[in-house]
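All the exercises in this workshop are built on plain-text protein records. A learned vocabulary of local backbone shapes supplies the integers on the structure line. Once this layout is familiar, the rest of the handout is easier to follow. An example says more than a description, so a record of this kind follows:
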Amino acid sequence: MTIPRKYCPYCKSKITRKIIENRNRDYCVACKTIFYDNPLPVVSAVVPNKNREILLVLRNRDPYAGQWCLPSGFVELNESIEKAVIRELKEETGIKGKVLRLLDTNSRYNEIYGDLIWVTFEVKKTSGKVIAGDDARDAKYFPINDLPKLPFSANRRAVKRYIKNYQDLWRMADSFKNLEQQQEKTKLDLPTDSLYKIISKDSHLITENWVSEVCSHPSTTKYGNYSHDILYERAYQVISQFSDWMTTPKENKKHIWDYYTKVGQQRCEQGFKLSEVLSALSLTRKHIFAHVLANSNVWKKSIAMYQVLEFMWQVNYFFDKANYYVTYGFETVNTLSSK
């Protein structure tokens, strides 16, 4: 419990209490000094390692001596909260760190220190060996899913925030790890093979869906001037180029990008706007995604996340490259025209 003031530190007169600004405050009648009491700022650090563990210290003094908590301490005068958390980390655990991000702020009352404002950061270890400092009996890493009970509610709240921030990333990493283990045991083919087979099998349906939309989409109005057969052939060529790209060795892909350069040149000469051509390619990508993901059982598998991410990365990479070479084709025509 905080010790109440008895005498003014400035004139040594006896302190009284007075309602000032709607609060009962300490007040010196003699020198008319108003004493404003503010919460004390406390910093804490969540310091993780690569094994999903966080660093805790065993407290050496009250409150909660003998219990584990995050490295924590008070901010000093003329010290930023970022510098304070790095200093406390060094004093209590022996390591140096770098502040990565703010995790949580929280107000709490403490029987010894009164009102506190807890500011917790995620901190990356940069150097040093973990050794308990003067304010701690011990310091070590604990698994994030098997922590001892933390006595400070502000610590518990910050750890929950940390877990929430990373739980999706951890699930993704676990999915990849499980996939690798399954592949080692069963020698599975690339998990996205089944998705690419859907493209080959249903390329005519994907093409028809694209033709229907490109003729009516507001960003591709010029395509509506062409017959169904011409548009169908163009879209089918694009999808075929994607299949070709997937099965062609890296060093032999030049003919694919030459094709898209030529497409850019032709569309420019035909009076298409570059934005229309790029939008048409974007619609092709959209219909590939929509059809493949709607007609696969990818969502029912434990390795679904890996399959979808791998497939989306490959499709996006291909169409980004295609957009580049189409644009390059446009530019070559415009360059020749300006000479």
In short: Residues 193-338 form a domain with the Globin-like fold (CATH 1.10.490). The longest strand covers residues 96-110.
